[in-house]
Amino acid sequence: MNETPVENQETNKHNSFFDEPNVQMEEIPIGEGVPFGIECVSKPELGIGGVYGTWGDSYDNNALPEFIESRLGENLSDEDRLDLEPLGFVNRHHIPMFSDQDNLDLEVAVGTKLLREAAHANGWETDEVDAVMIGMSGPVSNDYTERIAHEAGIREDALIISVHKACDSSMGALQLALNPDLEIDGRPTKSLAEELLGKKILVGGIEGLSRFLNRSRDKNALQLFGNGAGVIGVIPGKTMEFLAGKAHEVFDQKGVLAVRMYYPYSGLLAKGGSMLEIVQSGLNHIRVAGRMHEPAEPREPVDMAGPMGMVKLFVRNGVQVVSDVYQAYLNRMSELGMSQKSFVTTIVHHANYKINKLKAIQLEKEGIQLSMPWVLSEFGNVSAASNMIAFLRELPKLRPGDHILFDGFGAGTYYDVFAVALGE
Known about the structure:
The protein is an alpha+beta fold. The chain has helices spanning about 65-70, 100-120, 145-150, 170-180, 190-195, 210, 220-225, 305-335, 355-365, 385-395, and strands at about 25-30, 35-45, 50-55, 55-60, 90-95, 130-135, 160-165, 185, 185-190, 200-205, 230-235, 240-250, 255-260, 275-280, 285-290, 300-305, 345-350, 405-410, 415-420.
């Protein structure tokens, strides 16, 4: 098999993210103290910067089973233990069981720091930010994005948008900011993209998945997911220009990846059967909420099939959406007289390495060869944060005028795939 479409980068590295040379560490005074590490990335030539990181104790693949057994109160059998390194993961980060108030205080502290540092990575003060758009699978509070924006010093009149589309949430947010042809809940969002054009916005994914899973009995989920976050700053139409894209949704009828909706959702399908609804949640707060196939057990936050079940769930539709956007991109380039242009890289959600590897193989059969680097080995699956972390890790290599493809997907199921041009 040709390995070039997916570059498996150092999946055998066992160092903790906290030990990497450019990581800034602090301890958040919750419980006995929660380690929190971030790395800031700036690319002045592109006018884009951001910050990514994680919090909680770091568990490599050898230490993880003991942590999960202590949380479950039972031993993991050999059959229960996933072979994680071939899936691209060697570390992930977890917190102890905290009270609801401690969880809220912890994640507000994390989110506040991320917004401040992401603004500074772009050379902005927080009161210059015009909009904050955060994707998250299971928010710690319904007003989480508003809270962290307020604590970070974002202006009271700034637009606040929370997006809940599971692992696709941050890509849903970014496409919402860039794509004037997008529709949500049966309504066009052109006015929103036009409103954000030329504005300074912070977009990201912040996922406290250890807290989200603290009542879970799902042994696959406990081994795959961990805490993580990434926030970038962009100016739509200036530092990041939309070229072509598509949002797609297909309800997961079988509940292959069932996820509890810990956010407001009316339960009513929109006109045309959309699973998404967009509501005014506060004076300047818009919430985009996606319907999920929820676990049958009322207290269970997630119920997932094994890794191969995830492959079957995401690959077929994912390949089709990427193919559609790729063709739309080629058409756009032809119209612009730029047929020689191509993507320098693809920023793909790191659900697991096998999913991305198989997608690359299937796309290659369609004549589409994409560079899809694997760069999140030491985080685990961090849901909506993964695309943002992957982008920031690739950012130092990117140049003005580069075209990149974002490929987001998540439970529900939801897909956001779009092409952009970078640079001032």
